[in-house]
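Lab notebook, bench 4. Still working through the backlog of constructs that have no structural model yet. Next entry is a single chain of 138 residues. Request: give me the structure tokens for it.
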Amino acid sequence: MGKILLVDDEASIRSAIREILEYEGYEVCEAGSGEQALKVAQEEVVVLALVDVKMAGMNGVETLEHLKNAHRFPVIMISAHATIDMVVDAIGKGAYDFISKPIDMHRLLISTRNAIEKVRLENEVATLREQLHKFNNH
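Model written out:
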């Protein structure tokens, strides 16, 4: 399986979330900015990104847009300053989920598990479709 890309400009928040995810058996890679996240996503096999909305430079929604244009993994947005408009905007731009800070770790783990399972099922369906296509053409 791939890694969870954790994107937040606050190292202490990345560290706390990383500790919980690794305790649950996930592999984690980190980025301290949106720009760095795009680089890491090119270098690592990422299955899910957790992206903070408010960051210096490229904000989380811009990072979401770039990640969704270049990759197929789900993105969960995280924010301490969430508004309904912000959530609607992020979901409309392809976010899988939106979690408010302070983070309810139980909710984060459920959303993480569900997003990764969704990717696994989509990959399985794609494989089955490919096999069916090959079968039908023989």
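Notes after review: The chain has one domain: 3-136. The mean pLDDT is 94. Flag for follow-up if needed.
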